[in-house]
Design a protein that fits this description.
Layout: H1 4-12, H2 17-26, H3 32-45, H4 57-73, H5 76-105, E1 116-124, E2 130-131, H6 140-149, E3 153-167, E4 173-180, H7 184-188, E5 194-195, E6 211-214, H8 216-223, E7 233-236, E8 239-246, E9 261-264, H9 268-271, E10 282-283, E11 286-291, H10 297-313, E12 319-326, H11 333-370, H12 373-381, H13 386-425, H14 443-467, H15 472-477, H16 483-516, E13 526-531, H17 540-555, E14 560-566, E15 577-582, E16 589-595, H18 600-604, E17 608-611, H19 616-621, E18 625-629, H20 630-636, E19 646-649, E20 657-665, E21 680-684, E22 694-699, H21 704-714, E23 720-724, H22 726-768, H23 770-778, H24 783-812, H25 828-853, H26 858-862
Length: 865
């Protein structure tokens, strides 16, 4: 009457009660009589067997969970390996996302931050405009129009992103702050903890409002948390400012660098040398607003575009479009773009690690499911649907992913603080305090859960679809292992691993170049000194007198061998560029330039290969002379003698400045590491540039203290930044070390996961082919032939995956060029050495199980089932 019953009984005699219970649930749809018969049959074989017939959807899923739990509990080794693999992948991704969330996604730490929007403008048309920080910022007049005419904000505030100021005192020092509109704290709903915020009368006119609000940390560190701080004075950039308030603890402004003070933007021209506040066509103010409740972002943009059209109507040829974005600590759009690009690249890299982990677990699931084909075939033969099997297998995959996700998230968050402290400790010297808050918020667990669910589906779907195909006779009579899918997953692992390893190899090679390169000039025992004379009210003649006196004082200091000047010290990441017209040509040519004194070349030991150096008389007289590099000479006057030629620079209308070339110097990496052939000019016009010239001092030992003492003797209120010249190259080395360490760690993790995956797959294949191997050996095949066969089949997907990974990395490796310091993005050492290493490790991972296969006794193998 029930022909399927004997088949089930035979299956049950193999002894899997959990499977029996799940199979029983498949038969509970056949009515009471059928249910009773099945229950009686199962009860005779399984003592105390109980079955509950529940017809709702949730009970079915709950049964899947219970069965999956029992199945995984009976295979703890498999479950532990799968969970640990997923935990590594999700842990790395969660940790990296936590950092990127703190940098680019978190809103400002203010009440109602979800209603704050940053406003930008994109101005089209060939109109002259001065730009400070970003072209998307607003002038004072534009801000006032948007503030007064909009209908969508409860308040619209503006601020200059960063202001570096000199705090006077016994030990003058540089601090960072912001110039803001007087409604800044009101819009942010950040009432000071002590004193008051700015009042409307503080912003009545230019240079009004000599008041300042200081941060809580600055109040505690500098003023000892004095409760009577309100009303005291502080001197910033030579201006006496009254402290009127102390901000709430934890509030550090609206930019990535932590602010220590805030002053009204009407004080801009009093605190800075250039007048930005009074210029109607100068971009210098970032704008944020608190939007009215219930208004969509598109409504806000439309309202502001109406105001933009009115402004455009007053300036024919101008067309402005408005953009609005949620407010974060990256207030400059270019910073957001860089953060999004870099963040996307890093997430892609760690995503590859997770992809390898997923492929690894998918192969484990596929191998395990292949051993259960008999079970699945019986399920299908007695009425189970394919979807029922898929759902059960996906449940197991999701449970593994959930356990791995929880473990990985705990691992990431428990080590996160230590990782952040390590990264901050290795930032380049002199990096200001950052305002980022890396503490996890709701986005981190949301991301982790979403990633976990996606991982569960990715790991389990392909094996579930593969093993649930209703090819019953084949499944009942053969041991199918899903060979093509299994090898494809190995290829995916190897390809992703190859991309990460080659990228890390390139970055490590770049770090080696940065550590060992010869920049073409001397750095040892040379110190740099820089200071901001403009903030103390110096003009060019006064600055020239100060610089000459300072150089004379330093030249006579003990241990000092020579003193030179340069607007930009070599490799200090400051660059000046413009267009020049070489003699004999009519087209403007771009070049980077630097103002230097005659002592610059002998101090740095950059040889003059043709012509002569400047003289001190020419330099201090302001004679416009130029010295070009060898590459510049070849580029501008190929085959000709550059000495005596002229270079025209239209910098001072109506007549351009004409520089006469007096010499040619050897190429050197003074601008960028690894690039010595750039178009570069050294100019002698120092008399008119003394406000911005830096000192270079060479001595028998470090000269930083000598620089500080000499500056303090001449101008006690001036802050000097003195550092070894080698710090310029150390900045790039620090960045290279961080990027190479991250890439190297991901590469090693990927290599370990891929090696485990290859080893596991080969071991599984060998275990499934024991009988075949026994037959081959019984027929005369020796150990070497068997090993060669297994290795050849195992390495085929590895080689194909490696080739795909090499091609993929070659397509994107130019993205890393800025961190390679002149090394080719297709460096043969990385593109050859890394694949050889990976193939060798893959060969080793395949060889171990292949060698074990040859140790099988052929007679035992022939009886193996």
């Amino acid at each position: 009457m029930y022909p399927k019953l004997p088949r089930l009984i035979r299956f049950l005699t193999r002894g899997d009660e959990a499977v029996a219970g799940d199979l029983m649930e498949e038969f509970t749809t056949g009515g009471r009589t059928r249910l009773w018969l099945w229950k009686q049959a199962l009860s005779t074989m399984i003592p105390n067997f109980e079955i509950s017939r529940e017809g709702n959807m949730f009970s079915g899923y709950w049964n899947d969970v219970r069965f999956a739990s029992r199945t995984l509990a009976k295979n703890p080794g498999f479950a532990a390996i799968a969970v640990a693999t997923i935990a590594l992948g999700i842990g790395v991704n969660t940790g990296i996302f936590t950092v990127l969330n703190g940098v680019a996604l978190k809103p400002l730490p203010t009440p109602g931050a979800e209603r704050l929007l940053s406003v930008y403008q994109d101005i089209h048309g060939k109109l002259p405009r001065n730009v400070h920080e970003s072209a998307s910022f607003f002038s004072t007049a534009e801000y006032e129009k948007y503030r007064g005419q909009n209908h969508v904000f409860t308040g619209l505030a503006a601020y200059e992103t960063l202001l570096q100021a000199t705090l006077a005192g016994e030990e003058p020092r540089q601090i960072w702050g912001q110039l803001t509109s007087c409604n800044y704290f009101d819009v942010l709903e950040q009432a000071p903890a002590l004193g008051r915020a700015f009042l409307a009368e503080d912003c009545k006119a230019a240079r009004s409002g000599a008041v300042v609000v200081i941060s809580d940390s600055f109040w505690r560190s500098t003023f000892g948390a004095d409760p009577a701080i309100v009303g005291r004075s502080a001197t910033l950039n030579g201006r006496l400012m009254t402290i009127v308030g102390v901000a709430k603890p934890g509030f550090n402004g609206t930019e990535s660098l932590a602010s220590t003070f805030w002053a009204p933007f009407t004080m801009q021209s009093a605190l800075e040398p250039n007048d930005l506040y009074g210029k109607a066509n100068t971009s210098w103010l970032a704008v944020i607003g608190r939007v009215k409740t219930g208004l969509a972002r598109e409504t806000v943009r439309a309202d502001l575009n109406v105001i933009a059209a009115r402004i455009d109507a007053d300036q024919p040829g101008r067309a402005t479009s408005i953009g609005v974005l949620p407010t974060t600590l990256l207030g400059i759009p270019e910073e957001r773009q860089i953060a999004n690009t870099v963040g996307g690249l890093i997430l892609a890299a760690v995503g590859m690690v997770l992809l390898i982990a997923c492929a690894n677990v998918a192969n484990l699931l596929l191998a395990r499911a292949a051993g259960r084909q008999h079970e699945f075939a019986i399920r299908l033969s007695i009425g189970a649907t394919r979807w029922r099997l898929i759902r059960q297998l996906l449940t197991e995959s999701l449970m593994i992913a959930m356990a791995g996700g929880i473990l990985g998230s705990i691992l990431a968050l428990s080590t996160f603080d230590a990782a952040v402290r390590f990264a901050v400790a290795h930032l380049p010297r002199g990096t200001p305090a950052l305002a980022f808050n890396f503490a996890p918020d709701w986005r981190v667990p949301e991301y982790s859960v979403a990633l976990t669910l996606l991982t569960g589906f990715v790991c389990g779907l392909a094996p579930a679809l593969r093993v649930s195909r209703p090819a019953l006779n084949r499944a009942l009579n053969q041991k199918s292992g899903g060979g093509f899918l299994r090898h494809s997953l190995v290829g995916v692992q190897v390809a992703a691993c190859m991309v990460l390893l080659i990228a890390s190899g390139l970055l490590l090679r770049g770090l080696w170049v940065a550590q060992t390169l010869d920049p073409g000039f001397r750095m040892k025992n040379i110190s740099t000194g820089s200071f901001d004379l403009e903030t103390l009210g110096y003009n060019e003649p006064r600055a020239a007198a100060f610089q000459r006196a300072l150089m004379d004082r330093l030249a006579s200091a003990p241990g000092v061998e020579s003193v030179a000047q340069a607007m930009n010290a070599p490799l200090n990441n400051n660059h000046n560029g413009s267009g020049f017209i070489p003699s004999g040509q009519t087209k403007e040519r771009g070049a980077e330039f630097n103002y230097v004194s005659p002592e610059f070349f002998p101090m740095l030991e950059i040889p003059i290969v043709h012509g002569r150096n400047f003289t001190s008389a020419e330099s201090w007289a302001g004679t416009p002379l130029a010295i070009v590099t060898e590459s510049t000479a070849r580029r501008w006057w190929p085959g000709g003698d550059p000495v005596g030629k002229t270079i025209s620079w239209d910098i001072s209308p109506p007549a351009p400045t004409v520089f006469q070339v007096v010499g040619v110097v050897k190429d050197a990496q003074v601008s960028h590491i690894g690039r010595s052939d750039e178009t570069y000019l050294y100019l002698s016009d120092g008399l008119n540039r003394q406000l911005h010239m830096r000192l270079l001092v060479r001595g028998a030992r470090s000269s930083e203290n000598a620089i500080r003492k000499a500056v303090r003797a001449l101008e006690p209120g001036l802050v000097v930044d003195a550092a070894p010249l080698e710090d310029g190259i150390e900045f790039w080395r620090s960045l290279s070390r961080v990027s190479a360490s991250l890439a190297g760690s991901l590469g090693v993790l990927a290599l370990v996961l891929a090696s485990i995956g290859i080893y596991g797959v080969v071991s599984f294949v060998v275990s499934r082919r024991v009988r075949e191997i026994g037959i081959r050996m019984a027929l005369g095949a020796d150990d070497r032939m068997v090993q060669k066969m297994i290795l050849r089949q195992a390495m085929r997907p590895v080689v194909l995956g490696a080739l795909a990974g090499i091609a993929g990395c070659a397509a994107v490796s130019r993205i890393l060029s800025s961190m390679l310091f002149g090394l080719s993005a297709y460096d043969p050492v990385a593109f050859f050495g890394v694949p050889v290493l990976l193939l060798a490790i893959a060969m080793l991972a395949s060889y171990v199980p292949a060698r074990r296969a040859t140790k099988v006794d052929p007679m035992i193998a022939l009886r193996y089932e």
